[in-house]
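W.,

You were right to be curious about this one. When I first looked at the sequence I had no strong expectations either way, so I just let the prediction run and decided to look at it fresh. Below is the sequence, 383 residues in total, followed by the output.
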Amino acid sequence: MLKEILQKIGEFSAKKPLIVILIVIIMSIFAASFIPHIKKQTSYEKMLPQDLKAVKELYEVRDEFGGTDVVEIAVKIVPSDCSDKVVDIRDPRVLNAVKMLEENLRSVDGITRVSSPVDVLIKLNGGTVPQSIDTVKKLMRELPPSEREKMFNKDYSMMVITAFTDVGGDEKKCDNLYKSVNERIKETPWPPGVEAVQTGSIALRALLGDLMNESQEITTSVAFLAIMLIIILHFKRITSVVILTPLVFSLIWTGGFMGLAGIPLDMATSAVGSLVLGLGIDYGIYFGSRYKEEREKGKDPEDAAIITVTYAGSSVLASAATTAAGLLSLTIAPLPMMANLGKVCAAGIIFCCMLTIFFLPAVLVLEDKYVLPLIARIKSKLL
């Protein structure tokens, strides 16, 4: 039964390669339309099971008291060659700059409250920023030692501005907030020898999202290039890279699956590209090798493709099934991101298997019937 089905698939793919390629392209365009719907997930509470008591309490705290995510801006002294550089973070020029930044931050969407040591000094000074370091020192002596120690570090080279937010787990709001805060920092006229750096949970989440994207691009690209080199060395011809075409389309389909199923890009799923490439290339190598053997026996491209699908297809199906089953076992993991990794990797392997059996024979036939003869004619004309 299975052998007959595979034979019919092989016959259709080998005898109507252009139709097969057109079908795959149309399906890939459809899948690609869902890729922009993939959302990043960097909030730690979303990476945990949502039925945990601590996670539920966190959401309740947010609902009752506002956001729990914090933007912290470290304002510190840095080396400078300027003659009028700041040597004490309590310098009135720094205090005025901090006051200006605080006012600008309050207008940022998502920020609910902003505070800094400058607020305390302004309150002690009757509503205005102290205009000398001596005045600041005098005002600080009015505070209890416990409060005084929290305002600046021991050598008076740093202070912290704290902004509370209500962005929660919304990744888009988190990214926008991070960018807006950085813009406000750049717009602030800092005196020489002073810089401000955004940190805190919002900044870390934004940076984590950027690093996930970067990691995905780098690892997938490196894996693809390494596999392409190995394929060329194994089959000893440049055109053998056509074996990689099922992998390319399987990545597109996998991305579409993530967008359609609402599976986010997180620390685990960002590695899917290289995993699918590494696991899925086996099917292409096996198919390509069997097709090459049939061609060396004197079979024409179409017959070689049909035989390859008929007799190698069942082994590829079995291999893909066992791999997918192993990956799907991750779906019972308590961590959602591990479960998502299992779903996406299993889907990617299934797509690789389908495309290898249905699409790769068509590509191999077109390569043998049109691409290689064309290259041979070009070489003969050049030589």
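Here's what jumped out at me. The chain has a mean pLDDT of 89. And, maybe more interesting for your project: The chain is about 65% helix and 5% strand.

Coffee later to discuss?

I.
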